[in-house]
Amino acid sequence: MQQLPEDWHRGIVVVAHPDDIEYGAAAAVARWTGQGKDIRYVLVTSGEAGIAGLPPAESGPLREAEEIASAKAVGVHQVEFLGYPDGRVEETLPLRRDLAAAIRRHQPELVVLFNFGDTWAPGFANSADHRAVGRAALDAVSDAGNEWIFPELTDAPWSARWAAVVGPKVTHAVDVTANVEQAEASLAEHRRYLEVLSAEPVQDQVRAIVDRATGPIEGFPAERAVGFELYQFGG
Fold first, then answer.
1. How many whole angstroms from its chain centre is CA 144?
2. Backbone torsions φ then ψ of 38, nearest 5 degrees
């Protein structure tokens, strides 16, 4: 198991919903901002369909505010929402274009994505939004560096060096032993969402989720780690 490269300065995390980052990558983000790296978040939706009993017009602004607070807990101060409809995201050329535009705008060396496979684990289907956003974003990493694919984009082409996917297939990892408390604080900012999600106390949910996301990884010498599947590009 290899160490994820860290000889870079700027990264972006692209996900479908508020709380996606906190379910997987937040501890790694805390490590990186602690190193002085510039990390930014791009969320395709506002998660407005995510709270049972709360209409989207109320839920969307609430979940955006929770995500902005969650980002600050791990040292991230730029959070962008693209406004796609929660639960109805499709893997389309317009989505690829908007994500390519975001990559050109933020000029990351590393793009972090969320699991876009068909399942979380055997027998557990992944969200349609996760699949659509992850696959479109991985294509958009290449699109952003090609001046001819979306010529209507006004920002200059930009080629990231890597994409790192948080998911079940792991090729690289980072040691987050010192960042678990920050990850817990970040997830705890999604209090309203977690209160509706389960009857368990929020802090118990937070601890269990972060423990799953930051356990030891076979072959990697760290007590707590976050694993990624790494893709290399020509940047």
1. 18
2. -100, 105
Contacts of 154 (CB under 8 A, 6+ apart): none
Contact (CB, 8 A) for 138 and 14: no
Q: What is the pTM for the complete model shown?
A: 0.96
What domains are there in the chain, each with its CATH number?
Answer: 2-232 (3.40.50.10320)
Which residues, including other chains, have CB under 8 Å from residue 55's CB and lie 6 or more apart? none
On whether the CB atoms of residues 21 and 13 are closer than 8 A, the answer is yes
pLDDT tens-digit map of 103-144: 999 999 999 999 999 998 788 999 999 999 999 999 999 999
Tell me if 64 sits within 8 A of 81, measured CB to CB: yes
**Stretch 55-76: mean pLDDT, rounded?**
97
d(CA 146, CA 228): 25
Residues 6+ apart with CB under 8 A from 83: 45, 46
Task: Assign 100 to helix, strand or coil.
Answer: helix
First to last CA, the chain: 24
Could you give the 3-state DSSP secondary structure of residue 29?
helix
In a 10 Å sphere around its CB, with 0-12 CB exposed, 13-18 middle and 19+ buried, how is residue 190 labelled?
Answer: buried
Residue 158's nearest CA partner among 113, 109, 114 is: 109
Q: How many CA atoms lie within 13 A of 66 on its CB side?
A: 27
